[in-house]
Hints:
Keywords: Aspartyl esterase, Hydrolase
Number of strands: 8
GO molecular function, one term: pectinesterase activity
Protein name: Pectinesterase/pectinesterase inhibitor PPE8B
Structural class: mainly beta
Number of helices: 1
Number of domains: 1
Oligomer: single chain
Largest sheet: 3 strands, parallel
Order of helices and strands: HEEEEEEEE
Pfam families: Pectinesterase
Domain Pectinesterase catalytic: 1-105
Amino acid sequence: ADGSGDYTTVGAAVEAVPVESERRYVIYVKKGVYEENVEIKKKKWNVVLVGDGMGATVISGDRNFVDGWTTYRTATLAVAGKGFIARDLTVENTAGPTKHQAVAL
């Protein structure tokens, strides 16, 4: 979140992951709030997101059904690739109850 890494967004780091990797690909996500929606596509295998702790590293989105998104597309972090692992981070959807369906992960 401070802009000092190789990528300024989690999504950009995920896009750089090799397709169908048989080896784990670890992405260190520095502490901060990342306001974005991230999709780990079907061919992005063995992605590992490691943060600086729950509440310290936060991926935050606010997509919701009321604003025109399908429930599936409201996910702040959508994972279709096999072998995904996340640790020491928070994934949240801040849409709130008035926005009806909204998914974090």
